[in-house]
Amino acid sequence: MLKYLHSFLRDESGVISTDWVMLTAGVVMLGVNATIAVHTGTVELSEVVSESVSVANGD
Fold first, then answer.
1. Is the dihedral of CA 20, 26, 28, 34 positive or negative?
2. Does the pTM exceed 0.85?
3. How far are the Cα atoms of 42, 44, 46, 52 from residue 55, in angstroms, in the given order?
4. pLDDT tens-place string over residues 2-57
5. What are the residue ranges of helices labelled H in 1-59?
6. For the chain, does the N or the C end have fewer beta carbons within 10 angstroms?
7. 9 contacts: CB under 8 Å, gap ≥ 6
C-alpha cells in the first residue's frame, strides 16, 4: 500500500489537465466580467439618452 501511495504522489500525468481547467476557468471569468461591464455601461448610457430625448420632446 505504501508503494502505491508513493507512486501516486510522484505521478504528474494529471497536472497538465488541472492547469488547463484553471486556465479555462480564468478565461471564462474574464469573459463574464467583461460582459457585466459592457451591460452596465449600456444600461447607464441608454438611461442618459432616454432622459435627453424626454427633455428635447418637452415630456
1. negative
2. no
3. 20, 17, 14, 5
4. 888 888 778 777 777 888 999 999 999 999 999 999 999 999 999 999 999 988 87
5. 2-10, 15-57
6. N
7. none
